[in-house]
Write a structure and sequence with these properties.
single chain; 469 residues; alpha/beta; TIM Barrel; 8-stranded parallel barrel; 40% helix
Length: 469
């Protein structure tokens, strides 16, 4: 049912769990800055302490071992390793921390999947223009090479950038993620472009200098909902769905896996809207330079973050203004038959993951796929007996099995999001995704396995047993 070397994992991100925001020489990140500004995060909460994994790593490792994971996805804090974002100053305490984490995982026969960038740019680089600056790609490449050189003898699965779509749109168009910029219709495309440039540079660096000896694999984690027409067979809804897919999944997957450039439907829509609103500058969607490393082919596998599905119909723009919604000209709605899990945007649609996996196989030349995030949120009163989430994991993993067996999708791994309840960005601690509950009112930040964690253990044992027979 699952390949014998299938990766059974769970994931976390540095800012969401580590805490120690000023500990041992760590520099500030844009999320430190963002959270310390009033009105940015639910309840004025922040990740200053979070799960305190910087001091309680051994507790996290116990959780990983209790689940029986074969893989653990973590991210490195760029600012903890390189406080000013450059290799001019290397923070030895940060280096020791991540060396210990990686070594401990391997000692326990758990393979690390390491993300270089999970939303937390060093503030020193933001002060120089951040992801809007063309020079950020070279700085990221330098950071990536430092990490490959330092940890690559032990790390075989790398993610360069997590969810560039979210970084670009929520951080630079909507202003609800760090760095909190609201520059509709302009900054997000520039940020996304520079993230693709940065990813490509890092991939080429790995390919040229480290791959032969280290024998690892590198990709970027692309988030996407499954999208389908609101009215089956309706030409307008089908066209709107194609546009929505181009502006989300296609924005980052098309250049890497198909043509080396953005989807034509995306570029033509942006150009048309620019003309409509009298924008006289050069295209708001930048072009890739032939003088820089090629984008096409810079992924050794497809890393997919999937949470939910949407129905699509024309419209959904943001009035007479220049913005990404008006460029896309498509509205996304929830099917009322889909149950909502916790937060309003997250409908429970396990079969949507299977459909998306099949779409990726057919559209992007049947790549190897790791599902690098997938999860179910809980809000309100704590429920450690989280029956609905337990059923979600069983249903979802069954859909993944069908994608492998019946659709022929080359799925290599599944990472639940997340190992622990943690700091969930603008929602603070009000939203819980963990397989383990963390009691943030307890000074010891006690970790307790949810029922869903227990069910995940059973599923891993069941499928690993089937793999060996």
């Amino acid at each position: 049912m699952f390949p014998c070397d299938f990766a059974w994992g769970a994931g976390t991100a540095a800012y969401q769990i580590e805490g120690g925001w000023q500990a041992d020489g760590k520099g500030p990140s844009i999320w430190d800055t963002f959270c310390h500004e009033k009105g940015r995060v639910f309840g004025e909460q922040n990740g200053d302490v979070a799960c305190n994994s910087y001091e309680l790593w051994e507790k996290d490792l116990e959780c990983i071992q209790q689940l029986g994971l074969t893989h653990y996805r973590l991210s490195l804090s760029w600012a903890r390793l390189l406080p000013d974002g450059t290799t001019r100053h290397i923070n030895q305490k940060g280096l020791q921390y991540y060396n210990k984490v990686i070594d401990d995982l391997l000692t326990c026969n758990v393979s690390p999947m390491v993300t270089l960038y999970h939303f937390d740019l060093p503030q020193a680089l933001q002060d120089q223009g951040g992801w809007k600056s063309p020079g950020i790609a070279t700085l990221f490449d330098s950071y990536a090479k430092f990490c490959f050189q330092t940890f690559g003898d032990r790390v075989k699965l790398w993610i360069t950038i997590n969810e560039p779509y979210v970084c670009a749109k929520l951080g630079h168009e909507d202003g609800i993620h760090a760095p909190g910029l609201k520059e509709p219709g302009l900054a997000a495309y520039l940020v996304g472009h520079n993230m693709l440039r940065a990813h490509a540079m890092a991939w080429h660096s790995y390919n040229s200098f480290y791959r032969t000896e280290q024998k690892g694999a590198v990709s970027l984690a692309i988030n996407s909902d499954w999208l389908e027409p609101s009215r089956a067979g309706c030409a307008e809804d089908i066209a709107a769905t194609e546009r929505s897919l181009a502006f989300t999944l296609g924005w980052f997957a098309w250049p890497v896996f198909v043509t080396g450039d953005y989807p034509e439907i995306m570029r033509s829509a942006i150009d048309a809207q620019s003309k409509k609103f009298g924008y006289s500058g050069s295209s708001r969607l930048p072009s890739f330079s032939k003088d820089e490393p090629a984008i096409l082919g810079t992924a050794d596998f497809f890393a997919l973050n999937y949470y939910t599905s949407r129905k699509v119909e024309p419209g959904g723009g943001c009035g007479e203004t220049l913005c990404m919604k008006s460029d896309r000209d498509a509205g996304e709605v929830l099917d009322p038959s889909w149950p909502i899990c916790g937060v309003s945007w997250l409908a429970v649609v396990p079969h949507g993951l299977r459909k998306l996996l099949k779409y990726i196989k057919d559209t992007f030349n049947n790549p190897a796929v790791y599902i690098t995030e997938n999860g179910f949120s809980q809000v309100g009163p704590l429920q450690t007996e989280d029956v609905q989430r337990s059923e979600f994991y069983k249903d979802t993993i069954f859909e993944v099995a069908k994608a492998i067996q019946e659709d022929g999708v080359n799925v290599r791994g599944y990472f639940a999001w997340s190992l622990l309840d943690n700091f969930e960005w603008a929602d603070g601690f009000s939203v819980r995704f963990g397989l383990f509950h963390v009691d943030f009112a307890d000074a010891k930040l006690r970790r307790t396995m949810y029922l869903s964690g227990q069910e995940y253990v059973k599923m891993i044992l069941k499928y690993k047993s089937a793999q060996s027979t």
